[in-house]
Amino acid sequence: IKTVEPNTIKTTCAYCGVGCGITATVHDVDKRLITVQGDEQHPSNFGRLCSKGTALADTLTLDDRLLSPMYKGEKISWDRAIKETADQFNTIIQQHGPDAVAFYISGQLLTEDYYVANKLMKGFIGSSNIDTNSRLCMASPTVAHKRAFGSDTVPGCYDDFDHAELIVLTGSNTAWCHPIIFQRIKKAKENNPALKVVVIDPRETETCAIADLHLPIQSGTDAFLFNGLLAQLSKAQKLDLDYIDQNVEGFVDTLSSAIESASDIRNVADICGLSEADIHTFYEWFSGTNKVISAYSQGINQSSSGTDKVNAIINVHLATGRIGKIGAGPFSLTGQPNAMGGREVGGLANQLAAHMDFTEDNINRLSRFWQSDVVSSSPGLKAVDLFDAIEDGRVKAVWIMATSPVDSLPNANKVKTALEKCQFVAVSDCMQHTDTTQYAHMLLPALGWGEKDGTVTNSERRISRQRAVLPAPGEAKSDWWIITQVAKAMGFEKSFPYQSAHEIFKEHTQLSAFENTLDIDDSTLTKRDFNLSALTTLNQQQYHKLTPIQWPVTSESPKGTTRMFEDGYYFTPSGKAQMITVVPRQPKAPLSKEYPLILNTGRIRDQWHTMSRTALAPQLNNHKAEPFVELHPADATRHNIADGELVLASTAYGEMIARADVNKGQKPGHIFIPMHWTEQLSSKGRVGALVNPATDPLSGQPESKHTPAMVKPY
Ligand code: SF4
Q1: What is the C-alpha separation between 133 and 383, in angstroms, rounded?
Q2: Ligand 1: which residues within 6 Å by Cβ?
Q3: What would the mean pLDDT of 80-94 be, rounded to a whole number?
Q4: Whole-prediction pTM value?
C-alpha cells in the first residue's frame, strides 16, 4: 500500500479497458475542483494517461445531472421510487412470470454493482434476462475463450507487449481506442527496433503510424486470413507439434478445414482484398518469430462470425505453442473499464456468476451459496433479442442502468419503439437528459465517476479500486445501493443485507472460491479459472487499501497471476486446449445496388460512448466537432460528394446527416462513421439507427462493422 498525500486519492479511469490508474487531488470539494494525473505506481499505465483520462477533472460539472428520483417527470422521494419500482416489477412477475422483466446494464458499472444486479435477476427473480452493453463489445471473445480454453480467460498481460518481437493488431485502432497500450508498443519499438508491428484493418488508421506492414483487409474476411496462416504454418513445418501433442485437442480437424478454406494464398488475397506479397510477408514474419502477440478488438468481435474469427486467431497461437509464454499470446483488448468485471459476476445473459456456465452442478452450487431455490436454470435474452422481446411485448418491464441503448444498439429506432411500448421502464443514470432517459417512467439518480466506490477489472485481468474522490451530489446513490433497496422492497431482504461495497466484494470473492477445487474423486467439483480465494478475508480497511492485482488470487498465487496457461493446463474436462474448426463466413447482409457501400462504425480519439461525460470537457470537443463520414476519394467521385459537404448516409434501417471527410485512408467501398453522437447532441447524427441488427449466432454480438449503406449529397 503506497502512502499518498491526505487530499490525493488513487483511483482508475472511467473509460477504456486499459484501466489506467489515476491519482486525483481534491482542491475544493464544494466547487468539485480536482486535478488528475496518471498513477506512476499503477502497473497498467505507469503514470501515462491519454487525452480522455487527462480531461476527467473537467467533466465533473453538475449541469444536467440527475439529482433526485423522478417518476413520470415529477420529483419523488427515494422511498417512493424504490417502492414503485419494486411494486411494478413484482406485479408483472406475478401476472406474467419472471421472464417478463429484464435488466439491461453496462460495463460502466463497478463489479459490486454488477454483482448485486445479477444476483437479484438470476438468483431471486429467477430469470436470466439480464444483459449488458458488453454484449456489443466482448461477447465474441468470451465464447471463443470458453471454446478454446474451457474458460473466459485472457492468457497474457500488458507486460507481454514489452517483450514481443512481432505484434499483430487486428481490428483495433489501438492509437485511438486503447492509447496507453499504443504508447507502450511505440516505446517497445523504440527500445527494440527489431520489433515488427502488423496492422490488419480496412482503414489506414492512426495506428498505422507504427506499422511495418498494414493489411487493408476487406471487411469481414479475417477468418480466411488466419485460416490461411494456419495452413501456411503447417506447410512450412512451423507448427509446435510437441506442444500440440501435450496440450491441444482438435488439431487434425481444424488444420484440414483451414487447408480446405484457405491453403491457396492467391485465393486468400482475392477474398481479403490484399496483395499476395503482403500476405506472404505477414505469414513469414509470423512463422519466423516466436514471441508474437495477436491483439484484437471490435473489428474482429463485432461480426456475425466474431466468435469464429477469435478462434481462428487463437488456433494459430495454440498450434505454434505461442501462448502462456512471455511476449506471446492472443490478446483481447476490451472496450470498457469493467467489461471484464461484468463477465466475472455473470452480467451476460448466457452465463452465471463467477464464470460458471448453466450446468446443473453450477445451478445447484449457486442455489446453495445464495440459499435460493429459484436460481435461473437457462440463459436469458441477449441484448438485441432482449429489445426485440420488449418491442413485441414478451418483456413488459426493463431496468436500464448506466447506458443508452437508444443510441448504441443496432437498429436503434426499433429500440425507441420498444421503450415507447414497454409497460414500465426504469433508468438509473447520472444524467437527466439522454436519448434513453426520455423513455423512462422512473429515473433513479446514480453516482458518476469520482463519486463511486468499488472495483473494476481491466483487459489484463487486473482488479483495481475505483475510489470516491467527491461526495455524492444531491440525492444520487451508488448503483449497488439502489439495486439492494429495490431487492429488499421486492421481498428479498435477507439476501441483500449490504451496507458497503466491501461487503459485496467479499461475497463475490467467497463465491469465486466456493467449491472451486480440482477433485478427481468427485465429478461435481471442477476447477474454475476465476478464483479470488486469497482475498476472501479482506477486511474493510484492507479493501479500502487494495492495490491492483491480477486474478486468479489464490494460496498458490497470493500476489495474483501475471500470465495464464504457463503450465499448459486449460480449464477443459481433459485439461487440454481446444483448436476449433473455423469455416469462414462472409458478413450476413450482402451489398446491393441500393446500398453498395460497407458502413463501419467505431470510436474516435477524444470521445467516449455517447459523450455524456467527454462532451463536458471543451478540449475534447475540439478534436472532431460533429458527426462525419469518412469515404475514399473514388467513392466520393462516384457519389458526387465533395470533401466537407453535408451528406445523407442511409441503410435499410435508418438515415443520418454528417459531414463528408474524403480520405485516402478509407478502403474503397467502405465508409466509416463514429458511434458517439446522440440525438441530444446532433438531431440527425445518430449512427446506431443505421446499423443492421445481424448478430453472431454463438455470442449474440451485433455486426456493427458491416452494414450495406449509401451516401449522397444532402
Ligand atoms: Fe487509460 Fe483508456 Fe483512460 Fe485513456 S481512456 S487514460 S487509455 S483507461
Answers
A1: 7
A2: 13, 15-16, 18-20, 45, 49-50, 52-53, 178-180
A3: 98
A4: 0.96
Tell me the CA–centroid distance for residue 52 and ligand 1, in Å: 6
pLDDT in tens, 619-661: 999 999 899 999 999 999 999 999 999 999 999 999 999 999 9
Q: How far is the CA of 182 from the centre of ligand 1 (A)?
A: 11
CA of 171 to the centre of ligand 1 (A): 19
Q: Do residues 415 and 409 touch, judged by C-beta distance below 8 A?
A: yes
Q: Residues 339-377, buried b or exposed e (16+ Cβ, 10 A)?
A: bbbbbbbbbbbbbbbbbbbbeeebbebbeebbebeebbb
Residue 324 CA to residue 124 CA, distance in Å, equals 39
Atom of ligand 1 nearest to the CA of 22: 6
Cell of 148: 478454446
Report all structural domains of the chain as residue ranges with CATH numbers, in order of start: 8-59 (3.30.200.210), 70-136+338-493 (3.40.50.740), 139-333 (3.40.228.10), 597-713 (2.40.40.20)
**What gap in Å lies between CA 447 and CA 432, rounded to an integer?**
12
The alpha carbon of 241 and the centre of ligand 1 are apart by a number of angstroms equal to 40
| Tens-place pLDDT, residues 413-460 | 999 999 999 999 999 999 999 999 999 999 999 999 999 999 999 999
